[in-house]
Each structure stands twice: as structure tokens, then as C-alpha cells.
Design the sequence.
């Protein structure tokens, strides 16, 4: 029996897809939201540090199942390596309803006006595809506000002189500083900097029928035991379902976007929770599957009209893969500086995001989320013992006496950092897998040196007797903050979609995740992904008349 035709299909129930589904459903548009994973259930995902927090030694707690979802890494020397979702080189994003918003650290940053106008601000960069976004901050401001209030953000940016202008304050007060945050904030102020509370997609007080945060240490990498961490799985997706216009189909792997003889999207081909091949038709298709999987889906959607993949006439699908090189510094103290009150990160500063001499962009700096014991065992000063008695003694003595400040550098996009598909390696359903190739721009590492030096200055000022820098910015980008592979733009020759996420080639095909990003900013991207979800959804609601777009 054929599936019932619907108005819209959304592929991917994460930060962007969940928001779009809610916007459409709330306006009477029938939606099927496809998710390759299932609903996250706290009791089914135990607090196992080896599965959850940043290590992925035993696998990925929220999916994908790594025996079904391999990827390929292509070396610049022509080598090919198959990887699975238990390490950083896979560029893993959770596969469940809510996706990374279930397990993320939940920092909720608005990008700054300069982040949308990087080429205007800094000029052309050799070897980079650096460009302005086709939208500016002012066009997205109301969408940021909607995300903060509908999904729930705690914060206070009154002490941040670099904050983008806003029309409305945060709906919840900020979290108080930890012992470490108080120490480092005071040091930053002595250096003339401007620390302030990190905005969080986390309830500092009861909000929208859910309780406030209990300051649990097993937070980043874990599902919240009291449902105080705000993601699409516990906010907009339930709201979409409550309208009666949204159905969520879990454990469904979408293989391709189908098209008709006139070149419009007609729906998707997918495999259901029993591995049966199915077709779902719709008037509109919105892809929000993450930068890697969105590019893979578009490239795998080939036909006579789209031999190189749907919406890929420009050849830019999969290009400009970016993420964030995290960089910073660590320090050792002769007294306890961490009280281990979760989630750990409490203060940030934006003094170095822009207008640094000799630097294009820059990045945010914050104190770090808590490392649990196994994760902490991987962090040692240069030359420290990595095993044996000395290693164990350090683990016991210094667990509360180490401090870290890190941040994401704004990477320079480049054409050769990309996603392709590998026809010789298939997933569980016989679909060609994503292949990752290329490297970061050479400036990324240089910019990381700058930001790490600033972090080290703060830790020294705070009283650390030994400090060292951890400098990122080399190798292939991607990871959890992946973006850029279906960039928006005004010119169809150098972009994949327009300023509303609408395909330049196929008017009823949209993208609504971080694939849209032209540049990655120097901030965690999730609030901008959510804002773009509202932006794309609002355009569809206002311009679709039931059969075509105005």
C-alpha cells in the first residue's frame, strides 16, 4: 500500500529539521519528518563515559550504528580509509530525534554582524572561497529571538560590549559561575577583557513546563536526566506533532530525492525500520541531515536531469566543508580550582572574535566543560607520563587543579575541503557512503596560534604555575560543527541554494541545516542553525500557495 501524499517532507530531525517541521505544521502544512535514528530514551542510554563523552571508544551512544554507516577518508596521497562512528575522524553527529541537541554542550550563540560579511570586512583571501552570506544579521535577528524564546535560552549579554544588537532579552537568567569560572573571569577583567555568562540552551529555572538544570556533571555527551537541556526533541518537534499535521518516522534511512519529468522534487526513496524500500511523495522536500549527510543525499540523488546530483549544476554540493578547529590553553594550579559543578563551562568572552591585527576573524574563548575521569586521563602537560605510577598520581592529584580555556576559530572555507560519494563502499542498504577529503586552509593554524596565546595569558594571570597551549587548525575539518557543503548565495554558479535555502535548480527543494553556512563563524553554530530553520520555514509558509511558489 502506497504512503499517503503529504505537503512536505523534512529529512533530519535535528536543530534545523525540527524547527522547519514545527513551522510548517503550525501553519497547517502536512509534514513527514524522517529520522534515521530513534527517539532518545534516557534509561536506554546509561551514563557510560566510554560511550558518551567525547571519546567514542565503545561506540556512539545516540547513533548511528557504526556497523551500518561507514564513511571513507581520502588522503591527499590517494589513500582510502574506511572509518566508523567511534572516533573524531568520522565527523560524528548523533543520529536520533533531536540529533546533537540531545547530547550537546548547549552553548547558544548569536553570530555577530561581521560573521555574515566576512569578505566585506576582511577582503579576499588567497586559496579561500571566503564570501559574504546573502543575508545579514538584521534579517536573522527575529529568528534568533524566536529560537531563544520557543526553545529556551538562559543568558545575559549586558556585559558583552561585542554582542550583536537584540530587541528582546533572554527568557531565562544566566547560570552562576563555577569556582573556576569566577577565578578566570576575574583574571580576564584584570587584563582589560570582558567576560560574561555563556548563553545556554538549558533551563536555569523551570521553563515551558520542564524543570531547571540540576548542574549534573554527566551533561555534554549525555541526555539530561531531568529534561532541562533544550533541544528540538523536547520542544519544537513535540509541538509540531501536537498540531496533528506532523508525523515523525524513525529508523528510516533516506536514500535519494526523487524527481519528475519536469525537474521538480516529487518525494524521497527510503528504507523503513524493517529495511523495506519505500517511497514517500510530497509537494516540497527539505533536507536537514547535517552538512555531510545532506551533501551525500544530494549527490546520490542522480537522474537524467541531474546526472551529478540534484541541485548540483554548479558543482558546489559537498564543497567548502568547514567545522571548527578548537584551540586554547591549559594550566596547573597549586590549589583546587574546579568544584566540578556541572556542566562546567560558565563564562565566555568575545574580545577576540573580530578586528584582531593580522587575523581574519578570530574566535570565542570559554572555560571548558567537565572532563570525566577517562577523558581527563588524555590531557597532560607536555612531557608528562602517559602511563604508570606517575600518570595515576597526576590523575588523582590534579583532577581539580587543572583549568582550560578554549574556543572555536573561524575557519577559512576552501573549495577542496569536500564531501563526495564513494561508489565502491556502501552502507547497510547499499547506498554509496560519504567520502571526506581535503584539508583546512593554512591560515587556520596561524589563527589558532593567536587565540591559544590569548587563552594562555588569562590562565597565567589567574595564577597557574605551569601553562601550555593546545593549538588546532591542521588536517581535515568537519566534526560536530560541520557546515558549508550546500552554501547559500545569490549567484547560482557559486552556490547551491538562495538566501531562503531554496535550490537554485529545483524550486520545491530546500536545505535547512548548517550546510547553508557560507562561513562557520567563531561560535558554536546551533542557535544559528535553529534561526535558519525559522528563516527557511517562514519563507515556505509565506510563499507556497499549495501547488507552487509565488
Sequence:
Amino acid at each position: 500500500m502506497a504512503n499517503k501524499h503529504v505537503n512536505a517532507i523534512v529529512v533530519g530531525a535535528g536543530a534545523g529539521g525540527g524547527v522547519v517541521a514545527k513551522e510548517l505544521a503550525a501553519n497547517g502544512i502536512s509534514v513527514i519528518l524522517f529520522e534515521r535514528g530513534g527517539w532518545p530514551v534516557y534509561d536506554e542510554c546509561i551514563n557510560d563515559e566510554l560511550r558518551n563523552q567525547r571519546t567514542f571508544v565503545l561506540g556512539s551512544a545516540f547513533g548511528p550504528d557504526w556497523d551500518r554507516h561507514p564513511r571513507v577518508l581520502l588522503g591527499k596521497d590517494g589513500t582510502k580509509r574506511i572509518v566508523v562512528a567511534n572516533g573524531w575522524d568520522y565527523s560524528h553527529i548523533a543520529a536520533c530525534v533531536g540529533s546533537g541537541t540531545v547530547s550537546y554542550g548547549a552553548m547558544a550563540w548569536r553570530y555577530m554582524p561581521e560573521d555574515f560579511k566576512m569578505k566585506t570586512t576582511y577582503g579576499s583571501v588567497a586559496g579561500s572561497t571566503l564570501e559574504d552570506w546573502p543575508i545579514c544579521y538584521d534579517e536573522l535577528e527575529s529568528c534568533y529571538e524566536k529560537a531563544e524564546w520557543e526553545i529556551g535560552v538562559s543568558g545575559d549579554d549586558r556585559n558583552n560590549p561585542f554582542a550583536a544588537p537584540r530587541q528582546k532579552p533572554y527568557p531565562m537568567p544566566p547560570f552562576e559561575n563555577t569556582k573556576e569560572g569566577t577565578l578566570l573571569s576575574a583574571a580576564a577583567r584584570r587584563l582589560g577583557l570582558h567576560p560574561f555568562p555563556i548563553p545556554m540552551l538549558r533551563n536555569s529555572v523551570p521553563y515551558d513546563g520542564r524543570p531547571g538544570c540540576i548542574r549534573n556533571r554527566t551533561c555534554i555527551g549525555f541526555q539530561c536526566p531531568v529534561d532541562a537541556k533544550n533541544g528540538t526533541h523536547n520542544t519544537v518537534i513535540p509541538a509540531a506533532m501536537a498540531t496533528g499535521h506532523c508525523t515523525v518516522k524513525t529508523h528510516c534511512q533516506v536514500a535519494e530525492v526523487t524527481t519528475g519529468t519536469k525537474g521538480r522534487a516529487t518525494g524521497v526513496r527510503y528504507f523503513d525500520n524493517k529495511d523495506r524500500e519505500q517511497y514517500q511523495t510530497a509537494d516540497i522536500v527539505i533536507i536537514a541531515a547535517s552538512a555531510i549527510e545532506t551533501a551525500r543525499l544530494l549527490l546520490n540523488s542522480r537522474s537524467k536531469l541531474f546526472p551529478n546530483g540534484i541541485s548540483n549544476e554548479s558543482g558546489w554540493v559537498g564543497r567548502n566543508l568547514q567545522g571548527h578547529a578548537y584551540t586554547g590553553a591549559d594550566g596547573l594550579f597549586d590549589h583546587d580550582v574546579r568544584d566540578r559543578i556541572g556542566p562546567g563551562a560558565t563564562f565566555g568572552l568575545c574580545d577576540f572574535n573580530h578586528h584582531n591585527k593580522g587575523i581574519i576573524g578570530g574566535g570565542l574563548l570559554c572555560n571548558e566543560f567537565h572532563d570525566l575521569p577517562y577523558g581527563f586521563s588524555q590531557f597532560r602537560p607536555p612531557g608528562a607520563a602517559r602511563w604508570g605510577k606517575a600518570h595515576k598520581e597526576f590523575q588523582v592529584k590534579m583532577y581539580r587543579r587543572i583549568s582550560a580555556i578554549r574556543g572555536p576559530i573561524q575557519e577559512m572555507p576552501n573549495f577542496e575541503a569536500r564531501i563526495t560519494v564513494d561508489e565502491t563502499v556502501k552502507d547497510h542498504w547499499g547506498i554509496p557512503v560519504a567520502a571526506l577529503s581535503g584539508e583546512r586552509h593554512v591560515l587556520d593554524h596561524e589563527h589558532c596560534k593567536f587565540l591559544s596565546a590569548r587563552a594562555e595569558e588569562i590562565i597565567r594571570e589567574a595564577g597557574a604555575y605551569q601553562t601550555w597551549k593546545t593549538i588546532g587548525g591542521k588536517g581535515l575539518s568537519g566534526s560536530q560543527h560541520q557546515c558549508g557543503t550546500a552554501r547559500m548565495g545569490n549567484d547560482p554558479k557559486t552556490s547551491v541554494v538562495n538566501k531562503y535555502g531554496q535550490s537554485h535548480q529545483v524550486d520545491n527543494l530546500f536545505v535547512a541545516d548548517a550546510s547553508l553556512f557560507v562561513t562557520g563563524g567563531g561560535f558554536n553554530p546551533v542557535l544559528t542553525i535553529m534561526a535558519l530553520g525559522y528563516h527557511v520555514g517562514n519563507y515556505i509558509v509565506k510563499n507556497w500557495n499549495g501547488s507552487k511558489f509565488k
Summary: Residues 329 and 456 are 5 Å apart (CA to CA).
